[in-house]
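Mods, move this if it's the wrong board.
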Amino acid sequence: MKKLLIAFVLMGLFHGFCLAVIPLQKSPLWKSTETGVYSTGATWGDIDKNGYLDFAISNGNDMAMAPNYVYFNTSGILQTTHGWASSNALYSGHNALGDINKDGYLDFVVSNYIGSSWGKTTVQIYMNQSGVLEMTPSWESADSMHSFSCALGDADGNGDLDLAVTCGESYNSIYEHQRIYYNDNGTLETTPSWTSTDSTPCYDVEWVDVDNDGDLDLSFISSIGPVFIYYNSGGSIERTASWNSGGYYDGNTLNWGDMDGDGFLDLAVANNNQMGQPGYFQVYRNVNGTLNTTPVWQSSTQGYGSSVSWFDVDNDGDKDLTAGRWWGFSEVYENIGGMLTTSPAWQCSSKYKAVVEEMVWGDIDGDGVLHVGKELHAGNGIKKVFYLNHYPAHTLEKVIADDDTLNLTEFCYNLASGWVSVATAPITNIVFDYHYSYKPDLGVSNWEAANLIFGNIAPVYIWGDASDNGSVEVGDIIVLINYLYKNDQPPHITQAGDANNDCIVDVADIIYLINYLYKNGSAPLEGCA
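Not the wrong board. Structure tokens:
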């Protein structure tokens, strides 16, 4: 007890706030060897199920007909020359990975932007056959359109992945309706059952539970017009968007993350100025499930904004914003107290200026991967969509709803966005067993030259080392006391404070460390079981 009193006395010496360091290399740790294919879409996923994340790239854009690539990862070493290429070569835009047919393997979906002479084309899927992607797509949409981006999500709440695609082309003012292809027991329809009444060229799409009502809503960003949100009511997506941002911003990319920590996902967008509009990065705040129509934040600079993504890069417990531009730099805007800096806190080396298309997070060598084995969420018999506490996730091992372990036919998921959608809403609770990484690397698809990956150089931390000084000592107790009782900053790597391995940082961890340091108690337990 005397030692605990000493800790409380000393904690004032540690009280205070300091800016975090963004732990990313300024020069890439990895570059692809191929050039001239105009890489556009980028996605991480364990395609061959060897435990390491592969890098899927779609190529072509509006510049050249090119095949799509996958760089395979073997024991943490990523190929620099593609290990898989599609047999066809098209003007491809963005892509998505997901287990469409429920066989446990990730299938590769590609949006194709234009056909010959800037005409319409189709969306295609390369199915995964026991860890090997087919080279010729076996699924193709029966209808044609201009599609720059796609996203897999559970539109109807039946636990399988439906496909939403953007449609339209802004350079030639081609207005098209957005579309959803529904999945029936593992088979995707080829003619869309849902089309929007709104008609505008859209360039990105994301599924998200905007209002936290337990189903996935659908968001699109327009290149000639606003951002649209189509709300989901009981498994039915409205056809006319009941929310839009208004105005005309020449949007290119959107991504969702909880900037202010209130439990509702905020919307980040990358705007482009090639069509004469301001090219700011912006964030729309989500207030209790309703987005403001005026951005709460925007970057200090403008230009050819092309990509945004959220991740807690500095491991301080809040979401930072990664952003990029065409012929610009990969950047990170730091989150301080629920608001982003208007100038980037990190920027890649000037040698690696790129035509950034997409920015995605994945741990190449798995050196930051942690296990979460008993993450409990409450059920109410209505809610079907649940967000993991940590994402992007590395793998999802098990889903247990109301004490029953679900099989693959009963749920679907998106590891990058962190949601799991179940076919039957749990009445009491749902438990997730998964892995995630606290230090993923930043992958960048580069339209102009080589694709890039910037390494995450955050230290491999010691469990219980809340002060991040390389050892477990009284200073760690002080950090936890300040965090829990003085509203001070959390441990530099929040999870390191979970000394007793119960997936929560609380007073029990303080007691656990005191027992370990002064009463010959057990050492801090690694991982969150």
